[in-house]
Amino acid sequence: MEVFPNPGSFALCTRRFPHCDLASWGDSLSIFAGWRKLTWSHYRTLARLPDKKQRLELEARAEREEWNAEKLEEHVRFLVEGSPKGDGVQPARPVILLEPKRGKLGIYRIVPDGDGCAVDLGFKSYQIVKDSNRSRAIRDTPTNTTFKAGELVALSPAGELSLAPEATQADLYSYDAEILRVVDGDTLWVKIWLKPDQWLKEKLRLRGLDCPELDTPEGKAAKRFVEGLVTKAVSVTVTTTKPDKWDRYLSDIFVARENGEEVFLNNLLLEKGHARRTDKVAAADWDEQQAIGLEAFCTVSSELPVVILRA
Question: The whole model's pTM is what?
Fold first, then answer.
């Protein structure tokens, strides 16, 4: 474990950081009050800040939130170098980008529903499939069509349901969307069109990344960056995966611009230094999945098992 060096080391620091003389060093970092959780690497990084108030605030936060030296370095770099173009904190090393998850609009899965079947629209929403025992149904579904649980289907803009034999599970859960509000850099309220005549409001969390907290300069910059991007969006497409432990759906968001270019928001935040890669969601955060089969015509396909999350 690193400990703070003896006062003789101050000479080196004052040559490297002229603004941080011997007296102000000890006073501003308040490190002689006793043993601290931060290491010499932390304090060497903090010495780059010429503003005493910033040093004290960042020191306290780094200790409180148990930052490692690398994370502290990112915050200090932002404060020292700034971000005049709103490009965030440029990463210290090459960023490993996400592999985009992009499905196809209008593709859904058939799931069992009592003695019949239903279309899983996503977000715990379902549409009954027409049969002789149902008074409600997707319109224009052929009466002689029998769907099986596990089959993938396509729903046309006119509301017609048909089998989609070439579709795969990777095509599921993609929707047209509108951004209603940016909560912070990685969380948004979104209007999602489940099908042409049905939408819902949902809070989404961007998959695979983490932006700084909103009460920091970096967090505010990340939020402004996302707001500026989505405000000029021509269209937005969302692909979602299972909800995280706070019941927020993890999402890949694609934004089409006026010039015809489409950008993958998740990776753009990483490229611009507004976020870092993270895989915080662990298996323990999820309810165990449960497969359900029926003996009737709505049997579970062995190739495409039906999984239903417990509420």
Answer: 0.62
